[in-house]
Specification:
Blueprint: H1 8-19, H2 25-30, E1 41-42, E2 55-56, E3 61-64, E4 69-71, E5 80-85, E6 89-94, E7 102-106, E8 128-131, E9 134-137, E10 149-150, E11 153-154, H3 167-171, H4 183-199, E12 204-207, H5 215-230, E13 238-241, H6 248-256, E14 262-264, H7 272-278, H8 280-285, H9 288-302, E15 307-313, H10 325-341, E16 345-350, H11 362-383, H12 403-410
Parallel strand pairs: 9-12, 12-13, 13-14, 14-15, 15-16
Antiparallel strand pairs: 1-2, 3-4, 3-7, 5-6, 6-7, 8-9, 10-11
Length: 418
C-alpha cells in the first residue's frame, strides 16, 4: 500500500466526513438559515441537549473559503465543532487546534424552498433540489426494484433506502407501472426550475429517477424528462443523464436530439459477483455485461470524459462480503483501471457500512480503504489523461466525493498542504 497521504482541502474534507461535527449552539443556530440536513443530530447519552428532545436540526452542507463542499455528519464524539454566528461568520474548530480555525459558510436556506407553484403546490416537493451549483431533477423517484422479488429476494440495491415508493411518489403523480410523467408534474417542475435559477447560480443539471424493470421503458421516461428540461433551459446549462443503462437505440436518440451533454449510469460496484449481490435488480433486469456495454456505447457517442458511473465506496466492507480493507481497495482499484481504460470515469461516494460497527477498527479500516482508493485513482486518472468535466460536476457540488477536489489540487488551484 502506498505511503502517500491526502493533503490540503481533500484531507480536511475526508477528516470531517469521517469524524463528523459535534453539536454546538452555533451549529444549532445555523440550522435556522441553512439548507436542512436530511438526518437530524441525535444526542448521545450524557451529551448536553438544549432541545430536551434527543435530537436537533442541523445544516446539511458547509463550504470552506476555497469552495470545498462538505456534508455535515452529526457526531457527539467528534473533536470538531462550530463557533461563531451569522453576522460575524462561522468557523470550524478542532478541540486540539482551536487556534487554527477553518472559516466556513453553510449552504443557505434559499427562498424558493418556502415558495409555491402557481397552483399552490410546495416547490420543495416538486422534484427539484440543489446541492451547491448543481440542480438535481427527480420527478419520478420511486424505484420498481423495491416492488419486485426473485426467489423471495428483494431486487432493490442493498445500500438504497431512498428509492422506495412512498408519499413522495404519490404527490409527484408517479404510479407503479406508468411510464409517462404526468403533465402537471412537468409544469410544476418547470416552475421550480425557474424559481431555483432566479435565485441560485446553477452550472449543472442532473436528471435522475427510480428504475423501471424494463430498461427500454426507463429510457422512454428519461427521453420525456430530458425534452421537458431542455424546453425550459434557455441558458443551456449542461445536462447529465443519470438513468440506468439504456438500450443503444435510446442512447442514439439522446445523442441525435442533443438532449444531454454527459451521461452517468451507476454501476455502483466493481466485479460481476459483487454487482449481483449488491445490485440484484440491475443484475437481473439489465445484467453486468450489458451495463458496461451501455457505458462503452455512451463513450462512442459522447466521447471520453463525458461518461461516468457513480460507485459506492466502502460497501465491500459490509461483513457479508468478508473482505479486509486491503482486498476491497485492490478490487476497487482494478475497477478504476478497467473503466478508465474504456474512457469511463467512476465517481466514488463514501458509504458508511451498517454492519461491523462493533469492530474496534471500523473507522480506521474504512478510512484506509477510502484514502488508498482516492490516491490510487488520482494517479490512474493522470495516466489516462482523464479528469472530471466541469459541466458534469465540480468542487462546488461534490459533497461526498473527492475526485473534483483532487483534480483541482493537481492543477494547482488550491493549496496542497505541502
Amino acid at each position: 500500500m502506498p505511503m502517500a497521504k491526502l493533503a490540503g482541502s481533500p484531507a480536511l474534507k475526508t477528516t470531517v466526513m469521517f469524524e463528523g461535527i459535534r453539536y454546538s449552539d452555533a451549529l444549532g443556530a445555523a440550522a435556522e438559515h441553512s439548507l436542512p440536513n436530511y438526518f437530524p443530530y441525535r444526542f448521545k447519552a450524557g451529551e448536553h441537549d438544549p432541545t430536551g428532545t434527543g435530537k436537533a436540526s442541523i445544516p446539511y452542507l458547509i463550504n470552506t473559503e476555497d469552495d470545498t463542499l462538505i456534508r455535515v455528519l452529526g457526531n457527539g464524539d467528534s473533536p470538531w465543532s462550530v463557533v461563531g454566528n451569522r453576522q460575524e461568520g462561522y468557523k470550524l474548530v478542532h478541540d486540539e487546534r482551536r487556534d487554527d480555525p477553518v472559516a466556513i459558510r453553510f449552504e443557505p436556506l434559499h427562498d424558493w424552498l418556502q415558495q409555491q407553484t402557481s397552483d399552490g403546490f410546495p416547490i420543495a416537493q416538486a422534484g427539484v433540489s440543489t446541492h451547491g451549483d448543481m440542480m438535481v431533477i427527480n420527478v419520478a423517484p420511486g424505484c420498481e426494484y423495491f416492488l419486485n422479488k426473485v426467489d423471495s429476494k428483494s431486487m432493490r440495491c442493498t445500500f438504497c433506502s431512498y428509492g422506495a415508493p412512498d408519499k413522495r411518489t404519490a404527490h409527484l403523480g408517479q404510479v407503479a407501472g406508468q411510464v409517462a410523467i404526468p403533465e402537471l408534474t412537468i409544469k410544476r417542475m418547470h416552475e421550480a426550475m425557474d424559481a431555483v435559477t432566479s435565485e441560485t447560480e446553477i452550472n449543472h443539471i442532473y436528471l435522475v429517477g427510480g428504475s423501471l424493470t424494463d430498461y427500454e421503458q426507463e429510457g422512454q421516461r428519461f427521453l420525456q424528462l430530458a425534452r421537458a428540461v431542455q424546453a425550459n433551459n434557455p441558458g443551456k446549462i449542461s445536462v447529465t443523464l443519470g438513468s440506468g443503462a439504456l438500450p443503444d437505440e435510446i442512447l442514439q436518440q439522446f445523442c441525435d436530439e442533443q438532449l444531454v451533454d454527459a451521461v452517468c449510469f451507476n454501476l455502483e460496484v466493481w466485479s460481476e459477483a459483487l454487482f449481483a449481490r449488491v445490485c440484484p435488480g440491475k443484475n437481473n433486469y439489465v445484467g453486468y455485461d450489458r451495463w458496461i456495454k451501455s457505458l462503452e456505447r455512451a463513450v462512442e457517442l459522447w466521447g471520453r470524459g463525458r461518461v461516468y458511473s457513480a460507485m459506492v465506496a466502502g460497501i465491500e466492507l459490509e461483513p457479508e462480503y468478508d473482505m479486509e480493507w486491503e482486498e476491497a481497495a485492490d478490487l476497487a482499484v482494478q475497477g478504476v483501471q478497467d473503466l478508465c481504460s474504456r474512457g469511463i470515469i467512476p465517481i466514488y461516494s463514501l458509504y458508511y457500512p451498517t454492519g461491523g460497527k462493533d469492530r474496534s477498527d471500523y473507522q480506521s479500516r474504512l478510512r484506509s480503504y477510502f484514502e488508498h482508493l482516492a490516491l490510487s485513482y488520482r494517479d490512474i486518472r493522470r495516466q489516462h489523461e482523464l479528469s472530471v468535466w466541469d459541466g458534469f460536476m465540480c468542487n462546488r457540488c461534490a459533497y461526498m466525493q473527492l475526485e473534483c477536489d483532487m483534480d483541482r489540487q493537481t492543477e494547482g488551484q488550491v493549496s496542497n498542504g505541502q
